[in-house]
Amino acid sequence: MPSASVSSNSSAASSPNIDARIIKRYAAGLDSEAFELNIHLQTSPGVTVLLGPSGSGKTLTLNCLAGFTKPDEGRILVQDQLYFDAATKVHIAPRLRRCGYIFQDHALFPHMTVRQNLLFAATSAISMSRGKVQRHRRLQELLDDFELTDLAGRFPHELSGGQKQRGAIARALAGDPRLLLFDEPTRGLDYRLRLAFYEILRKAKAQFAAPIVLVTHDLDECFDLADAVYLIERGRFLQAGSPEQVFARPATSDIARSLGIFNLLPAEIASLDPGRNLSRVRVLDHEVEGPYFKGHLIGDRGWLCVRHHELRVVAAPERLTRNHLRLRVVAVTKSARGVRITFPEDLTAELSEAEYVEWRGSRELCVFVPKTAVSFLAK
Amino acid sequence: MLPAPGTLIPQVDLFPLWLSLKVAAFSTVMVVVVGLFMAYLLARKEFPGKNLLDSVITLPLVLPPTVLGYYLLVLLSRNAPLGALYERLTGSPLVFTWQAAVVAAFVHSAPLFVKAARAALENVDYRYEWASRSLGASEWKTFFRVTLPLAQRSLWALGSLCFARSLGDFGVTIMLAGNIPGKTQTLSVAIYDAVESGNGQLARVLVLIISAVALLILWPANRLAGPHRSGWAG
């Protein structure tokens, strides 16, 4: 699905807030392989998340939007303003683009206090025609909103990580941006600070009508914040859509694998019944029922796809009923979340410590696959 | 045996010291203004001929002072276009004046400053400059409000080093400004003159003076360049 472009939750008629076709090539270097970024990003108001491993081109995409990196080809439109067009050689300078860029390590100016940082933004902003009094009022509002009033006189090195982040977001907003760009905002933050960040972002989103583009490799972040998700790998978009869509129906087995939340089992379709919305699939010498798999044929080979946490380990019934698989236990590993049981074909189920006590020592266990939880991916 | 201090001071003509300090001050100001511009170009801009420019700036560090002095004489003598232009503008020739000693000190210390200032500017995290630009600040504002303040500790130290180095030029100065006592005779030239004419007593005193002055300048400079107490230049 290269350059899949799905705009989320908005009417198809409204033009996207960001419409960016970006191609940027890097030749192989001494310690780097050749790399090509080739994407088409279309967003609506709200939060768009670019999700991918490091080195996939996420941050490069942000830098192209902000104007720090000049694409080789393509065209970038933000709210009907042309930022870049290779064909007509348009490349608007970063300072004219009004991108509120929140860097990974915040990049608050270390020689200025929080208030001076915000003031720098307010007095630099291209769009600023406000008078001194109004500017002052706006800064005070921002300081209040982001709980920075008491910290306004402090220097960045006197702030905690979360406070710096609030400062960076407030500074970006003080510049009156047309869009907000977040580069890995929760990298290196502990769990509580991450939750606090989600809260701040919700606040920023509520205050700020323009689009927000956020780059991350954290799946949870997507679920919590995103209105739309783009999966990116090796410079290409693999899939795009709402988080529910993307995580319920990964488009390919590669995507499902790299998301890391799915079991993928070699399977063959045994029967299909659109009328009753039913399919039967041969999996690991068992037969499993699922919903009707549209677009596939009987005899198709592929992967049965089901999330780790949707598998249930149950007591073996007298007679094996549908969607119960009796499987050999290959390995049991403990993790912070509980116990992970691995079966043949790397099928894994997660259960809590308490649940596991019941099955401790079993060589064989019965796994229940809920009918609604499965999907089929062609090879 | 050292003479008593009271009898020592009147014997020594301190004009070379004042001249050296004046020359070093003018030269340092010129070096900082021109050098910062060059360093910024080299550190942050890409342009054709950048490597050549870098090499030309480095050249004075490796060429013998006599060669530099010769080049400058050729460029700035009364018959040369540059020298003639200077004479037309100021009404007097440049060579064999104290202003020529400033030029000599400039050539002597500028390469060092540009090299090190470039490193200091490159040391400033580019993300601060990116942040500044994306907030709408101009290149000027970014340089003077962000880059320069963040590099200022190293740059102050460099400026002092540059001043100390300007004090010490000998080769280029004697080629371009000559050795005219009371007019172009700087401290280092005066020492040479004293040794040549067998005045060991004077040479010793001048050597001690220039060493003490250099040490007085370098000591705080090293403290500036040393480890920072807090996260930035504060």
Fold and architecture overview:
- The complex is a heterodimer of chains A (379) and B (234).
- With 379 residues, chain A is an alpha+beta fold.
- Chain A has two domains: 18-248, Rossmann fold (3-Layer(aba) Sandwich), CATH 3.40.50.300; 261-378, no CATH class.
- Chain A is 24% helix and 32% strand.
- Chain A has nine helices and 22 strands.
- In chain A, a hairpin with a 2-residue loop joins strand 18 and strand 19 (338-342).
- The longest helix of chain A is centred in the middle third of the chain and has 17 residues, at 191-207.
- The radius of gyration of chain A is 25 Å and the shape is elongated.
- By secondary structure, chain B is mostly helical.
- Chain B has helices at 5-11, 15-44, 50-62, 65-76, 81-90, 98-123, 126-134, 139-167, 171-176, 187-196, 200-225.
- Chain B is globular, with a radius of gyration of 20 Å.
- The interface between A and B is medium-sized, with 31 and 22 residues.
N- to C-terminal distance of chain A: 14 Å
The unreliable regions of chain A are: 1-13
CATH evolutionary superfamily of chain B: MetI-like
Summed up, the domain count of chain A is: 2
- In the CATH hierarchy, what is the architecture of chain B at level 2? Orthogonal Bundle
Order of strands, widest sheet of chain A = 7-8-9-3-10-11
CATH fold description of the largest domain in chain A: Rossmann fold
Radius of gyration based on Cα positions of chain B: 20 Å
The assigned structural class of chain B equals mainly alpha
Q: Report the largest inter-chain contact.
A: A-B, 31 and 22 residues
Which percent band covers the strand fraction of chain A?
Answer: 25-35%
In terms of quaternary structure, the protein is heterodimer
Structural class of chain A: alpha+beta
> Number of DSSP strands of chain B?
0
Distance between the termini of chain B: 48 Å
Strand and helix order of chain B: HHHHHHHHHHH
Mean pLDDT level of chain B:
88
